[in-house]
Amino acid sequence: MRNLRLCLILVGLVLAASIGLEAQGSNTQQRKESVVGIVLDSNYARIANFLPRLRSSLAKSIPHRLKEIRVVALDSSVEDADDAAKAKSCDYLLLMNVLEISGGAVGSSTRLPSPHISPEEERERRELGWVRIDYRLKSLGESGFNESDSDYVRFLDYPTSWDASGFETTVFRSVTRVALATVDKLPRP
Question: Which of 42, 86, 146, 181 lies in disulfide reach of 98, CB 3.0 to 4.6 Å?
Fold first, then answer.
């Protein structure tokens, strides 16, 4: 009789523990991932040529760092971005413009030309000093989240060794850095 009671108590404890684990598992399954649609645009022909690769690169790299956020690359223009994002069931839309700008003191540097830098690298660094990244991350739902700002290509985004793809590498790093920082501001689901 005593063994039977002990067995019933043990069965009850096992059932209670499994019910608790099942409830905990269903709570983690209820956590919804946020879907962010991303649209890239540029007024700079040199950058516009590789925007499709950059867009797909962002869609692949951001989810690895931010597990609750999935990024969808949208092949649309800025004008129809809202509709394209809603069609892909996006919760948020990230619009990024990589712009060639001009004006006094933009991209100016006190650094003197170095004999260790090739003329191509010097030219590309000058051009990169005139690149600005405007971004806007907005909610497509009820949350009312809306974040917008600008950033610039930074010296830290430059590759360690400059080659034929140094300009593209730098723009990829800059846009990825800005996209990650922006998406990281989203409220967690």
Answer: 42
Residue 23 has pLDDT above 90, yes or no: no
Q: What is the DSSP letter of 90?
A: -
DSSP assignment, residue 115?
T
Contacts of residue 72, defined as CB under 8 A and 6 or more positions apart, other chains included, come to: 35, 36, 37, 38, 59, 85, 88, 90
- In this structure, the number of other CB atoms found within 10 A of the CB of residue 80 comes to 12
Same domain, 82 and 93: yes
Half-sphere exposure of 164 (CA within 13 A, CB side): 0
| 8 Å CB contact between 39 and 76 | yes
- Please give the residue range of the domain that contains residue 56: 33-183
pLDDT digits 0-9 by tens, 65-78: 667 888 999 987 77
Yes or no: say if 37 and 155 are a contact pair by the CB < 8 Å rule. Answer: no
User: What average pLDDT is seen over the chain?
Assistant: 80
* Tokens 């006094």 found at: 104
What is the Rg, in whole angstroms, of the alpha carbon atoms belonging to the chain? 25
- CA dist 171 and 4 (Å) reads 71
Together in a domain, 82 and 170: yes
pTM, two decimal places? 0.75
